[in-house]
Amino acid sequence: MATSRGEFSSRFGFIMAAAGSAVGLGNIWGFPTQAASNGGGAFLLVYLVLAFVLAYPALMAELIIGRHAHANAVQALRLISNGPKSYKVGTAVGLAGIVAVSFILSFYAIVAGWMITYLCGSLAEIVGLTELANWFVEFGPVRNIGSMLIFMLLTIGIISEGVHDGIERWSSRLMPVLIVTLILLVLYVLTLDGAMEGLRIYLIPDFKAVMDPQLVVKALGAAFFSLSLGAGTMLIYGSYIPDEGNLPVLGGWVTLVDILIAVAAGFLILPAMYVAQHNGVEIFAADGSLLNEDTLIFTVLPALFETMGGMGILVSLMFFALMTIAALTSSISMLEVPVSYAIENHGMSRKRAVFLAGGIIALASTVILLNFDSLFGLVVAGTTRYAQPLLGIMFCVFAGWIWHRDSILQELRKSEPDAENGLFWRVWPWYVRFVCPTIILLIFVQSFIG
Ligand code: TRP
């Protein structure tokens, strides 16, 4: 079974795939713009703490369950259940994850589509087709639906190639390109006038903001979204890790790469905003607060690129290519969740499963686009504010309370015979049992009170 369902062929391949899933619009857009609006360095600090103390252990819960079962979330949770009740709950949690991640992809594909249109806009600009370039960056139904479909087709194309030839191969190709592009952009922007002001805001925490309970809520949401948690994505990637892979180390790498790229993106976006201000672009609203997230990316940055002359077109091209790549290595991990379920539980061929799941999700995206004002925000909040934290808690509960401890240890011993005496085994089991669910729940409840 393990071989027919495919697996990652190397440590590097897995890290690129899982980091590719983690690194996405959440890191390059979400994290820096939220940091900018929420106390700069304060947000960074809280985010770093939460990523290591909460997100990493929760990621490990998904990876270990997945690797143990070598199956999708529904099958995996059933396998580790300890009676008919937890069997049913496991089935429900697995299915809920599939629904949640499908809705996440349905809004993600819309935003990713916009990245493609801005990319095309820059290309059209280069060849002098100004009118076409303008069409690409204007909000309109044909542009919106068309670009979403193109993005979904790219995602479908990669996923239909399978775990090794699709996910692993493309992640290993695209992630290095992403990292190099990001570094080049950061280095360039830091040389521009005004950048240092942005850097100051980013790195010096406003400690009053650290105390704001809403900041913790937002930072946890950002960390969970960024590490692709609470949807079964990491569980399914975990299920493709061969038994020799050392899970705590692999999970550590993924967390580290994800955090480093989010932090690096902050070095790009915040300085860029202040360079824009220096060049005369408005970055604050009338009430003195920073412009909101989508205005920053789709209005402020393009306005900035325009003030940079010929270099601006190149930078714009690189920036939106970066965004598109980041989104694609994430969207493939989302689509794999329903696809693996359809293959393993309903005996479908991969091609059929991919087109069916991809088609349904594209349809959902179209419905959202046609009712944008009423649906978009709703779907984002429903999935990221509610479903992800709640399902995240359930994965921790399964790993900490339902799954037998000996069986977890055996799973870890497959790659690390001495796992019992390691630091991970001394801390993680009780941590994922008590600390993770409690803190996630507290923050979740807090988000309603505040
Ligand atoms: N982590 C990705 C990002 O930062 C998004 C993502 C991929 C995701 N898979 C997910 C989010 C599953 C939630 C659930 O953009």
What does it look like?
With 450 residues, the chain is mainly α. It has 19 helices and no strands. The protein has helices at residues 11-22, 25-37, 41-69, 73-80, 84-126, 130-136, 141-159, 162-190, 195-203, 207-210, 213-226, 233-239, 247-278, 293-307, 310-346, 350-370, 372-402, 405-413, 423-449. Helix 5 packs antiparallel against helix 15, helix 13 crosses helix 14 and helix 16 (350-370) crosses helix 17 (372-402). The longest helix is centred in the N-terminal third of the chain and has 43 residues, at 84-126. It starts with 10 loop residues before the first helix and ends with a helix. Tryptophan binds at residues 21-22, 24-27, 101, 104, 225-226, 228, 231, 233, 330, 333-334. Tryptophan (TRP) is lined by residues 21-22, 24-27, 101, 104, 225-226, 228, 231, 233, 330, 333-334.
